[in-house]
Amino acid sequence: MTARLRIENLSKVFAENPRPALEMLRAGAGKAAVLEALGQVVGLDDVSFDVPSGAIYMVMGLSGSGKSTLARCINRLNEPSAGRILLDGQDLCALDEAGLRAIRRSRVSMVFQHFALLPNRRVIDNVEFGLKLRGVPPPQRRRRAEEMLHIVGLARWGHHRPHELSGGMRQRVGLARALATDADVLIMDEAFSALDPLIRTEMQDELLRLQRTLNKTILFITHDFQEALKLGTRIAVMAEGRVVREGTPQSIVLEPGSDYVAAFTREVDRARLFDARSVMAALATILRGQDRIVVGDASGEPGPGFLLDGEARVLGALSAAEVERARAGGPKPEPDGAFTCVPAGAKLVEVAGRYRPGEPIGVVDEAGRLVGLLGAREILARIAAGGSHD
């Protein structure tokens, strides 16, 4: 994927003269050593990562890890001490005040933890606010605000004041306001952490629903690893101002890489995190005819297989004996048994619910083509597996 937002060697030292601290950091000193030697606080230490276009990129860590400092540096509420922030190749750190205002008004929007709504303005006026700052004519910005309120399910609440809404509804207003500007990047800084657990879950689901429609590039700051797993396309885990692990949710759970990261993964419900694609066995073509294909496990282990048509769609299941006869050049195989097919993106908890003892499970892509095989042993092993801390 193309990187919409690229962070390159970003550092932030809270000091009038950060140079001595930066020199210590480059020499290998950590945040604690800088504080002890210079009395200066390091917020970020050489942070680098790419946020792909259309991704929900999660930055998570404990309090003091640097994640909120990172968010504030990206829109330059905090001035970085070193490094670059590239938005479609444009370095935001090199912008003057006028250029930065233009970026904030049209290309980067924020959703805050405590809503940051204007209490004396109606909901629709709050949603219009960013468009008003950009000089959008009143009729046009009203139409856009009404459209966004409809998208977040608050079309009937536009003429109410924020205090008349619940916490979850106010956060939807903040989200609608950010979306109204049609910004390239949406930064969400602990956006749901002030909400009650049930409302928080609803807002997470709402964000995923909106993302399927709008396909925004989102940088989401959180201290909740479960939230990062649920929402994230990729995750950067921070500690002491540094990124200590970066990758897909699945890869981080499987290979945390350190005790610090592993501590977040211990209570993860793997059945709801991993999908069929992550555990399926690769296919091997055993026999190919004019309009029939026999496939089995690419490992060569004896087991059932499938008979496919010329487009790789499943015609039926084959017993292990039928697969071996096909491998040996025997008579034309015939399907002989019930089977189940699941989408490649189906979570293992869904797959387990559809499993029938003795029936092979095929994994299919969006076009219905067979792309892999599943067995109960592989499903259970992935759900029970522990990550490596190396």
From TrEMBL:
Signal peptide: none annotated. Keywords: ATP-binding, Nucleotide-binding. Residues 5-265 form the ABC transporter domain. It comes from the Bacteria. Pfam families: ABC_tran (PF00005). Belongs to the ABC transporter superfamily. This is Glycine betaine transport ATP-binding protein OpuAA. It comes from Methylobacterium crusticola.
